Every structure is written in C-alpha cells, then in structure tokens.
Amino acid sequence: MFKFYTFVDTKKMDDTGESPVYIVVRRKGGGRFWLSTGLMSRGKLDGLSFSAGTTNGRQRTMVLCRYLQQTELVLQREDVEAMTDAEVKQELLERVFGVMPKARLLTLAENVAAFAETKRESTRVLYGITERKVAQFDARATLESVDGQWLERFRQWCLDKGMRINGAGKELRNIRAVFNWARRQGRTANYPFLDYSIVEEETMPNNISVEQLRQLRDYACEPWQEKYRDFFMLSFYLAGMNPVDLLTCRADAVKDGHLHFVRQKTNKQGQRKVRAVVLPVVAEAEAIISRYRSVEGWLLSFVDGRTDYHSFLKKANEALKKIGPAEIVPDRVGKMRKVVYHPILPDITMYTARYTFGSIAANDLDISERTIGMCLGHSWSKNVTSRYMANDQRKVDMAVMRVVEYVGAEAAVVQQHTEP
Predict the structure, then answer these.
(1) Is 61 within 8 Å of 21 (Cβ atoms)?
(2) pTM: predicted TM-score of the whole model, two decimal places
(3) Strand residues in 159-243 grouped as ranges (E)
(4) CA atoms of 256 and 6, how far apart (whole Å)
(5) How far apart are CA 65 and CA 59, in angstroms?
(6) Spatial separation of the C-alpha atoms in residues 107 and 104, rounded to whole Å
(7) Neighbours of 24 (CB within 10 A)
(8) Cα dihedral across residues 193, 195, 204, 381: positive or negative
(9) Model confidence over 320-379: pLDDT tens digits?
C-alpha cells in the first residue's frame, strides 16, 4: 500500500522567491521517494492550492491536482504492489509526467558481449575473455569514449598483468573486430584504430627437425601418452592438418583413399565459396585411424563421450610436453611418489605438427610454397583456373607422400625424387 502527499522544499528557493513542489510517495513498511512536479510555489501550499502571491497560482493548482489524480490511479493498480520502489517511480514518471527513461549507452564490454553472441561457441569463449578484461580495465568505457590513448593504456595494463606483447595484441584485435562490427551495425561512427597500430612481435614457427620428429615417433613413451603421440603423428601425416579439423571430421570423410574436409577457420570467415581440402591418406595415417576408430560416427574416437574437443586438445598438449625420461622424487612430505618429467621436446604443441610439415617440405625437400600452401589448405594457394584442379590434387598427393617418405626413410634415398 502506498501513501502520497505534496511537499514544497523551501530550502531550495530561487532568485524569485519560489521553491520546487514535489509529490512524495511512501510505501507502507518500506521506503519513500520524491517526484518533481516541475511546478514552483511562493511559500507552502494552502492544502492543494498555491498561495495568492504565486503567479498563475490557479492554473498551477489545476495542474498539480491532475498530477495527484493520475498518481492515485497508478498507485491503486494491483500490479504496482509487486514492483520495487524504483520500478514504481519510473512508472509514475512515465504515466503521470510523461518522462521516458533515457536509453542507456552500452559499455564497450557489453558491445563485446553482443558481438560474441554472433559467433560460434568456441569463438564466444575467446571474446568472453576480452569482455572481462575490458570490464576490469574500464567498466565505463563506451564505443564513443575509446580513442587511441585509451587503447594504449589498455595495452599497457595487459602487459602489467603479465600478458605477453602478442597476447595484448590479440585482445586489441578482438576489440578492433568489435568496432568494425559496431560500425556496420550503425552503433557508432567512432573508429579509434584509424591512427592506432597494434604492436606485435614476429612469431617464430614452432617446428622441430626431422631428427626430432623421428625421435618422437620412435620414443618408448608411457602407455597413457601413446594416443596423444599418435594423434600428433597423424596430424603430421595429413599435411599438418589442424587438430580442430581432425577432431571434427566424420567417419565418412575418407573416400577413395583421400580425406575430404572444410577447414573450420576458413568456414568461420563467412566466405561465399568454401572449397574442401582433399588430402591423401598415406599408409602411416591409415594405420593410426584404424587404431582409433570412433563408435559415434567421428573419424577418431578421441571425441567419443565428450561434449567438445577442447579438453582433449588441452590434455594432448600437456601429454606431449611430458614425453621423455621420468623419475620419482620425494614430495613435500618426503614420500617417493612425485613424478618429474624430462621432456625430449619441452616446447612442443599439437600445432608443431603443422609447422614441421611445412618446414620439412620447404627446407628439406624444396617443395614450392604454392604446393605447400595447397597441402596446408591455405585459401590464397587455390586461386587457379578450374581446369588445373586435377594437376593441383596430384601435386598435393605427391608432396604429402614425399614428406612422409622422407621422415620414414634415409634422406639420400628420398632426395632422388623430383618435385611434382
């Protein structure tokens, strides 16, 4: 239940000697709030009437009475009792005084979240991280308030938090993508990246030599590490196939000795024509695929029973970094039960297979960059006339087989082959 009454705040008298008139609303057993009527009075009211000294006092009295009648009608509604005081106040402002709420300007973090909703789940996770970082740095920042200086302060904040230069650059690239999207949506005309360049360090390829690859392939690793090592080698045998693409392939992707798939990365870029990558399934790859056949329709069993592939990839990277001699050492309480690994390749990741395939093909076998690009599924390497497609596929097949043979045999023997 609500009660309301008028109040003239004589402490706020203006230069003409008039004071503002309010309607005060009180909830029984609760709080109260004030509503400005926009009317002014010379002294306190006489009941509901303005004093005789008030200019146009009669007209002001009629307006105030109308406000009070409309206030009563709103407060007598059954649904109002369930509203909060803030909601009741806003309802009265709209219904009695015609004051509509101002459209709140979304913050930059909220715009990042809105942009993330247009993406797939895996990409949403990445933009969710950017959203949280932006909110932590400046929760009030908007699309309009961000400029080059703000971007540089954000970059420095990321570095101060322990991020690397390229990590901070990645967050800035995400923010830039949000601004590009917001401009297309008509949300803003501001573009702070017009005069701001994202600073990043050149990333060296995380490849390993053919000798290291052979060592990894033949190493007597622990049984629990074998499937992760096999997954790495399978990626290499399939021309450094991206592990995400490999885990999301269905069982029917292999046809006539070739694996057909569309790269997840290319497919996400919204290109009108996305061409499938076709790779030969060499004997080494077929042996691994046969060893890990899925019962759920996937090409591989690694994702059977999982809701997504992220957890497997994380474990794969962790396992690869532990392949090597291990020793048991005392733990904190002195018991011999702590395992310390001495990895043969401490910096290896699943993506190393892709870098290694490209590096061996280019540096060891002198295969052309264009042919390597076709093996890796790079879209820039496929801008050729359709009548040459048969020749292109033959080059891909021959290049993959040359690299796999080179790893599995003596270099002097393989070098006798000529590039397709």
Answers:
(1) no
(2) 0.59
(3) none
(4) 87
(5) 10
(6) 9
(7) 13
(8) positive
(9) 999 999 999 988 888 888 999 999 999 999 999 999 999 999 999 999 999 999 999 876
